[in-house]
Amino acid sequence: MEGDPTLRLRVFDLNCWAIRYLSKRRQERVRLIGDTLHQEGFDLVLLQEVWSERDYSDLKAKLGGCYPFSHYFRSGVIGSGLCVFSRFPILDTLLYQYSLNGYPYMLQHGDWFCGKSVGLVLARGSRTTLPPRSCQLHAEYCREKDAYLPHRLVQAWELAQFIRHTSKAADVVLLGGDLNMHPEDVGIRLLRGWPGLRDAVAEATRFEGCEDGCTLVPNNCFTVKTELLPFPLGIRIDYILYKAISSFTVKCEELKTTTGTAPGMDIPFSDHEAVMATLHIRRQGQAAGANVGTAEPTLADVVTEARTEVGVGLRAAQRQRYSTGRMAVLALLLLLRQAAAALGALAGLAAGQPFPKLSFSLLAFLAIGILLLATGLHLFHTMEVKMLQGTEEQMRMALRALQERP
Amino acid sequence: MEGDPTLRLRVFDLNCWAIRYLSKRRQERVRLIGDTLHQEGFDLVLLQEVWSERDYSDLKAKLGGCYPFSHYFRSGVIGSGLCVFSRFPILDTLLYQYSLNGYPYMLQHGDWFCGKSVGLVLARGSRTTLPPRSCQLHAEYCREKDAYLPHRLVQAWELAQFIRHTSKAADVVLLGGDLNMHPEDVGIRLLRGWPGLRDAVAEATRFEGCEDGCTLVPNNCFTVKTELLPFPLGIRIDYILYKAISSFTVKCEELKTTTGTAPGMDIPFSDHEAVMATLHIRRQGQAAGANVGTAEPTLADVVTEARTEVGVGLRAAQRQRYSTGRMAVLALLLLLRQAAAALGALAGLAAGQPFPKLSFSLLAFLAIGILLLATGLHLFHTMEVKMLQGTEEQMRMALRALQERP
User: Fold this and answer.
1) How many residue pairs bridge chain A and chain B with CB atoms within 8 Å of each other?
2) Scanning every residue of chain B, which has its alpha carbon at the shortest distance from the alpha carbon of A359?
3) Which of B287, B179, B240 minimizes the C-alpha distance to B43?
4) Residue B293's pLDDT is what?
5) What percent of chain B has a predicted confidence (pLDDT) above 90?
6) How many CB atoms lie within 10 A of CB B141?
7) In this complex, is the C-beta atom of B120 within 8 Å of any C-beta atom belonging to chain A?
8) Which chain B residues have a beta carbon less than 8 Å from that of A132?
């Protein structure tokens, strides 16, 4: 871009599904991803679900020549799984961990342990400041009865706010990741509307890949076929979103997805398809202004819809806070009752039939266990309530700002 | 400021020590704070440790006339305790919760339950964009053997990074809060050096209040006198820091602190002294540029010092992760041994003396308890290790950037 006011930026995004001991043919696939990235020479690579630091180190060693700059984001128990490889120098990084991310006791879903986050990387492409973000939101396990929707909406809102607040001095903003939402879902509409991001699939001049840009497709041998039964073409949950901020414009020239297998191979990179965008970034004479993607009355509707869902989640969390609190109190009462009985037995030693020791201590341990568990859950749901209330309040403020704007 | 390129901004900052049931004369003090704020008519009020939402609502009701805009930040189990009252419209807010904040099992210190955070408020003062931040870092309980230093440094680093990334398009940045660090501590030097903040006490043209701007003083009837024995003048841990970013300059005209009692009263506002600054903000012809407060070789030394301390914390966390993991494994082995013994007893029912049932089940419950506790702690310390590693890595990157700069 030296002397030339345009830049062609090739971006690669993939949810790698690289969970040690659990993901099928992981090492083979990570090698394959590394080989492809090495051959293709993208400008920016945004990867998710690289849970093992060894996999990241292997990729880094292999890709050092063509992507001299990289960063791995650490968070949660297992990690965030996010990493970025870049041809441009990475000047700075910032990790924002979502305040809500599922429940620690839902071990079978495991989202809570991942510390899901958005990782911001500040890269400088000759004359452009690019903060690409790699992120992943809470997974959807059941579309009909989606218990995690409020958490995912809080995450989408925090992501939108994070983008708004950290991108003000950037030239171009880029967001890539597995958002775990369908294109028409309220969370995606929020991300398009509130920070004004554009969807590369919708804006692309040329498109090649799975129909509608789907990234979970029945053709992929690793996808769970039963989950895709209601969607014969597949679903789209991985995105590349972008916006130009200062005196720049961005156009998506081309968008490609893989189609069930890696190019020229017989196995896929992952259970998700990769998304590859070629963006055309151009400096223009005057500042473009921060144009919001959606017309504002529509945006107000989207924020209202999201706020309603967060409110539903808030009431559920309040109910759970109440019932876990009540259970803790009952367990405490049982313990006190037992302590009184034990003291009574000690005071009048020989009085009548003694209480059977085994059942007595079993009951005491049970009460202690329930007390500890219920207290822990009560604290957790108290935090959940606080965060949902905070988000609802922020959304209310955003709605007021939208309504007051001339 | 209409037509006039200058703005005088009066800022009030106070750690209110308003913990329900625990803080002495809380309601009386909150009323007093409200009355004073109402009379004095500051432009911006940054409060910490307002743990009760009822106290916030009372203040809001009382101050609605002179501070029409306010925000209460919710986080953690108890809350963040942060709130902001403003004469200027609050356009947007963002809460960043620190990734590390003490240990949940240190109940007597309680920091973990507060969800300590930095709250960003985007306010617009006629022609100036002001993102004031209210924040509180982890408390220091023992200066000689400060087990929380690495956590506080991670928080200081995250705060510095948060300011750098969210203030790029602002005119003036303002940070007020209880930073729980002395002025010469490495965390404060980091906050002055890395985002280039200036300390209102050091820069003030006129100063009035406790010597050296101390905010925990022996004169205050609520402070714990034994903690202040090594510091006969008191200590300074509450700050107002600022910087001008775009084409603005900021000067601190006047800085005042309360001196053990509220002005004209016989009791203090809190166990901390209030800090009040009058800032003179002036638009100048050309952009001031993001000048870093400290010379860069000194800044590199500060980042290196902070990184060394984080490294010490990392090794301690790794040791704790190892020992809790080992304890969990031992408890599991004990449980398996018991299960084998129980199965053996069931198989050869009449063989020899039966194992005493009571001790057997007590031991089993003990093993289950230890297993659960040790696993929980192991998960917690794994997260701690990840976050300390991530911060160390970010500091390494910052040092490289500082060294590479021409």
Assistant:
1) 110
2) B358
3) B240
4) 45
5) 45
6) 16
7) yes
8) none
Count of Cβ atoms closer than 10 Å to residue A297 Cβ:
9
Alpha-carbon gap, residue A126 to B248, rounded angstroms: 28
Q: Is residue A104 located within the same domain as residue A245? A: yes
Could you tell me the pLDDT band of residue A263, with boundaries at 50, 70 and 90?
confident
Contact residues, chain B, for A73 at CB < 8 Å: 390
User: Average pLDDT, stretch A322-333?
Assistant: 96
Helix (H) or strand (E) holding A340: helix A296-347
For residue B292, being part of any structural domain is answered with: no
Q: How far is CA A66 from CA A22, A59, A60, A125, B263, in A?
A: 30, 11, 10, 15, 65
Spatial contact of B242 and B172, defined as CB atoms under 8 Å apart: yes
Q: Do A97 and B99 make contact, defined as CB atoms within 8 angstroms?
A: yes
pLDDT digits (tens, 9 = 90+) for B208-218: 999 999 999 99
- Please indicate, yes or no, if residue A293 is contained in any of the structural domains: no
Asked whether the ipTM of the predicted complex exceeds the cut of 0.85, the reply is no
Is beta strand A238-244 parallel, antiparallel or unpaired with respect to A198-199? antiparallel
Looking at residues A283-287, what average pLDDT do you find? Answer: 64
**A residues 348-377 lying closer than 8 A (beta carbon) to B:** 357-358, 361-362, 365, 368-369
- Of A272, A280, A378, A381, which is the active-site residue? A272
pLDDT score at A291? 45
Of B71, B151, B272, B381, the catalytic one is B272
Q: If we measure between CA atoms, which residue out of B369, B366, B374 comes closest to residue B325?
A: B374
Query: Is B151:B100 a contact under the CB 8 Å cutoff?
Result: yes
Same domain, B141 and B201: yes
Q: What is the CATH number of the domain that holds B129?
A: 3.60.10.10
> For B228-280, how does the pLDDT look when each residue is reduced to its tens digit (9 = 90+)?
889 999 999 999 999 887 788 899 999 999 998 888 888 999 999 999 999 99
Place A1 in a pLDDT band, splitting at 50, 70 and 90. Answer: very low
| Calpha distance B281→B313 (Å, rounded) | 40
Q: Is residue A332 part of a domain?
A: yes
**pTM, entire model:** 0.85
Closest CB to B390 among A75, A169, A386: A75
Alpha carbon separation from B115 to A164, B77, B78, B101, B295 (Å, rounded): 23, 7, 7, 7, 34
Query: What is the extent of the structural domain holding B375?
Result: 299-345+356-404
How many residues are there in chain A? 406
**Annotation marks residue B71 as catalytic:** no
* Nearest C-alpha in A relative to B73: A390
